[in-house]
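REQUEST
  id: r-88c1
  op: predict_structure
  target: Cysteine sulfinate desulfinase/cysteine desulfurase and related enzymes
  payload:
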Amino acid sequence: MTMAGSCAAVPVAGLPSLRTPMPTHLRLGGFMPCSSAARSRGAAVLGCALGARKQTPGVLNQLLCRYMRRDGHEGDVSNQGRDGAVMFGPDDDGVKIPTQVETLVKGTAAVAEPEYKQIPDVDYLQQGPRAIGFFGTRNMGFMHQQLIEILSYAMVITKNHIFTSGASGTNAAVIRGALRAEKPELLTVILPQSLKKQPPESQELLSKVQNLLEKPQYDHLPLIEASRLCNMDIISKVQQVICFAFHDSKLLMETCQEAMNLRKIVTLFYLD
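RESPONSE
  id: r-88c1
  status: 200
  body:
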């Protein structure tokens, strides 16, 4: 089956008449040739409609490019991609992705990776043994004292240095647990006043402590003021604070707040 088609040449004033060859026969799927005068957009589209039934995509693209080049629209098509890039910007956002060759030559280390910066608290928690200050109330039951002894013992055997004061209750439980670990160099007790100002029951336990620091210069102060200064001294020597208190323990709450202001890690256990 064959198809035939032709376009008549239209004479143009001032120009010699252009004549096209006689109609040629094309097989189905071919393109129908047209004269130069009939190369209008409608004629080209009509020719494509008649002859593009069995054309491959590659051939159709070539025909479309020829049509756009002839009518002066080639620049519009070629600039369309560039205009879109200018409008929306590049996709890489300044990050250069290495090619396969660069990856093989330089390795995967050449790929840009975002720098991860740890926050100070996370970095601190990943450190090893550290100095820990224990604070707490004097009014504490037997069960709570046993729990504190176990905690103090565990901290010392894991090579943490314990700092505490010499009062009864929490401080006494911390001292007993640390002494059970048989590492006296990892326990430091700082008294708010001199040893003779401490209760008799506390003096017997304090006599077993190797690192005992007294504050005789505070003997003239009320015990509450001497204890506040003693707590501040302990905070300055440690990295972490563990406190056992009630909600109405004013001095202990002030101590924990001061430790947080100094960027210390504070663990507060409420007994009520």
